[in-house]
Amino acid sequence: MVYGFSEHKEKPVKTGHLHMGGANPSGERIDVTSLYFTRGDKPVIDVMGEYHFSRDKRENWYRELCKMKAGGVTIVATYLFWIYHEEVEGETDFTGDLDIRYFTEQAARAGLFVILRIGPFAHGECRNGGFPDWLLKKDFPLRDNNDGYMAQVRKWYGRIFTEVKGLLYRDGGPVIGIQLENELTDNAEHLLSLKKLAVSLGFEVPLYTVTGWNAARGARIPVSEVVPVFAAYADAPWEEGTKELPPSWHYVFSDVRNDAAVGKDILSADSASADDWILPYDDYPYATCEMGAGLPFTHHRRPVISGMDAYALALVKLGCGNNLAGYYMYHGGTHRIGKLSTFNETKASGFPNDYAILNYDFHTALTQYGRAREQYGLLNLLHLFTADFGQELAKMTYTASAEPVRPEDTGRLRYAMRTDGQSGYVFINNYARRLPLPMRKDVVIDTGTVTFPSVDIRENISFFMPFHLKLKDGTVLACATAQPLCYADNACFFMEIPGIEPQFILEDGRILHGETPGGLKIVTLPMSEAVYARKLSGKLLIGENVNLYEAEGRICAIEDGPFSYRRFCGDHFEEITVTGDFHPATLSVTDCDEPFAPPYPEELMIGGPRRLTWKKLRVDTDEGMVRITYRGDVAQIYAGNELAADEFYCGEPWMIPASLLYGRDCYLVYSQLLDDCYLEE
To answer: Is domain 2-390 given the CATH code 3.20.20.80 in the classification?
Structure first.
């Protein structure tokens, strides 16, 4: 069957209409057009990954940032939670694990830019949305332009600026952007006041962002002063009820940027509907800050996001025109416990959901302990591509399929393209979370300028293919039935799409075999190898079932123990093995009576009384991870009498670093599982 497209419409690119942009001391500029971002006057598609410095330990920051860099992240975004730094009024703390300056310096050391999300309100599943308790007791409204609140915000912003002074892009530092507030949907005047305040205190950066969601009309924002950024989650653990949700819109192609479901647990009704307000979407590049590479668990909803859930969603958004791929979270973390309270969002603190006291793993690409999930390698397939091909892709606009597809539709093919009218990429998504889609036979894609060979499309696969692709040696491919990855050492790497024979067809109809007329090698990797491909210091490396990263000039693996990888050397792969001693811990688990009254019984008893089961834990070394299996509702691990870890049960084994348990009297306690939550076992 032949599949065509709706009419392609060029979009005029506006420049100079936004009060943004800036240069570093070397003269390189970052700017924003209506279609894409530029760096050094060239379009760029950056990858932004969220990692909360205050939800990890400072000794981990550099290593974890290097892992993010290896996974294709170019910008790290991080919240500053006010309650973390000033739990007691007047007692600010930016030391130790709260040292934003050191974190920013480590990001620069790892080769990353930084966007600071300075609030004041953050949400982030934090107590009071990040506001300190003492602030809530003041006699003035919050998130408002009144003098009392703005005076407090001035102190907060000023304290942050003192910490990062000299690290902004204009100073030669990594901080290129500031996010103001979060999920404020109906107060453009306040957002503008926050920007003016931040700038007056010294926060002069190229980019200012705000969250743009609030139903289809979009949030009310100061239109020329900020870039709205959007979200896309595969499920919604904040939704009420414990039933499975309908199929998601995020697995069909659409030019709608907004997701009205995000944040609906804390947002007010869409006040924009009272007048003619519509966010001028065409003034801004399509940018995301919260594509869900994972999701947190609320007590009542625990959707487990798989690698393909995240990859297909991100691929669809790329096909829809996303020119800033921002993930929340990209790296999980651990909530802190304060002097006066825990710092997690709970119903007891006045918010709609119960989250774990410590666990903010988010079931995402990198776990709270820095381990890689399937998302990590799959998403990097897209990041490798945008790093080397993004300059041209950024200028291409979304063109829909000939027939629209609804989320529940399993009969129609889900496809779209990005094109400049001649060249481009066809995006095909034959995957939907928890909705089986059938194999498609004899699919012929007609872009209007080229017709692809017939292909069969397997179930549970998402991919894209280029047409009229100009390679860096000047060779033009009429089309290819393989997915472009990257360039390295006079070679262009592609990924073989499972079930589709890779063909590289020249404009004159000839088929390439291994090398272009200009001498550029064409190397095709099976998907099983491509997910372990990393570009480190300009070289393409493929881990042998391990995830590689580079730190302090050394090639490392996220996984423990000796490892091997292959390095591409222009015309062949060189095999390299890294040896080292590794003594993985063995875990012993024994039944025991309650050794003490748990300090946080309220978490174990969410929803009412439950039977508790206790186990004593012991490990024989502090190396590697240990696997804990149980079936319950909420689990806590105590090292001594201190809460060391917790989680809401989701049906998967609980992976814990042996170092968390070694040399201490440790206990596991978990509560009885009742039929009062959504599980996907």
So the answer is: yes
